Amino acid sequence: MPLTPHSHGPRTRTRRTTAALLASAVSVCLVAASAPVAPLGIGDRLFPYLGNPGYDVASYDLSFTYSGSNSEPLQAVTTIDARTTADLERFNLDFAHGTVRSVEVDGEPAKFGTAGEDLVITPGATVPDGNRMRITVRHTSDPRPPKGREGGWVRTADGLAMANQADAAHLVFPCNDHPSDKAMYTIRITAPEGHTAVAGGLPAGVNRSGGSTTWTYRTRHPMATELAQVSIGRSTVLHRTGPHGLPVRDVVPTRHRKAVEPWLEKTPGQIAWMESKLGRYPFETYGLLAADVSTGFELETQTLSLFERELFTENTHPAWYIESIMVHELAHQWFGDSVSPRTWSDLWLNEGYATWYEAMYAEERGGKKMRDRMRDAYGASDGWRTAGGPPAAPKAPEPGDKVGIFRHNVYDGAALVLYALRQEIGGPAFDRLQRSWVTRHQDGTASTQDYVRLAAEVSGRDLDNFFQAWLYGEKTPPMPGHPNWKPSASATAAAR
Q1: Separation between Cα atoms, residue 44 and residue 248, nearest integer Å
Q2: DSSP 478
Q3: pLDDT band for position 23 (50/70/90)?
Q4: C-alpha 413: how far from its chain's center?
Q5: At what angle do helices 448-459 and 347-366 cross, to 10 degrees?
Q6: For residues 153 and 168, what is the distance between their CA atoms, to the nearest angstrom?
Q7: The pTM is what?
Q8: Alpha helices in 304-401, H assignment, sequence order
Q9: Cβ atoms of 258 and 315 closer than 8 Å
């Protein structure tokens, strides 16, 4: 759940307004001359300049050196192993907030320049189609946000964390910043004595030298750039065991440990609850990063979900609500992390299912009826579709509001589609569909069209008309089994 607009509960949280990052504000520094260059992209309907053609990334090796101040740029080295899918005389990486010092391709110096939010690289010789290539970029990574822009590094009270969704990983490190190109990660963080660094994946070594420590982490499953997480702070790492011996580790500000830990102790039980619905948890570890910062959102970063510390310490929300938000982010480990969207228009599958399990948990543990929530969502749905587009065809974000795709239509509006589908094909088929989806596409990417095909396969029915109306219609179709459900008067007025 990157930016859930929690309008349904006592806790309303919204993302702060962001503004466009103008080309003139991009802080990648041109150090080497090159021929005229142009920004590229893979043509995503919502973010056309994200990602780059011509190669597939196999792995990232990220090294960050933290000075002890979260107002100073980190020294960084990004190494990318990729396979070319075309002859490349020149290629682009997404990168927009650091000083590039040098670039090498297969160990040889390469020319580089900038275009928009791209780092454009010209190797000394063309890299043929089908070849492996290693790109090494030495650069800085600036934790201070560009003017009018949020995302990437988040400065906490005691250090840093990451929030890269939807298009901000390239504010931290050079990458192919689109969820369709998942890769393996090795992440190394060096920080001064008194700090602790944690990243997604499992620990792979600790080296102490000269008053600083370097921590290394590696993933065992591919990950999208938007899901990378690094925490640096005066933190304590808490360890416990989940189902099947799963290592569960949480990262908390040391001074808030006592207040936060009772909530985090609930995680193994929540994992077991999710496994009862979907099958085995898909990754090598899980845990929560309770960052000492007020962001207005929680985020499903892979294996280490980002939460605001205050969610657990302010004592302003009922237990069932806080736990349901924890389950929302946990559900994303299946929906969005293990099975990632092929395009950003497929976001409804991530957020719809995470909202579905959030609501189901609230019903089972908090007595908050799913049916009541879906009836309310039905009343508001026409207004959501007018404001944000149908669930599977969301409107593009407004200029300067790139996180604007995270609207009600892809949260409760998408959960409403799942409720309608369950009404249409029945509970047993719906349950088989969910399990088949996360199994068939584990560690990969999948699209709305893949989901429509699988739903037909599992149910044994032609559902094309159903999905066309529910996923792409300007108006909300009649709810199967509930002919008396009607759009609310305010939603009807908004749709006019």
Answers
A1: 35
A2: P
A3: very low
A4: 19
A5: 60
A6: 9
A7: 0.91
A8: 309-313, 319-332, 347-366, 370-388
A9: no
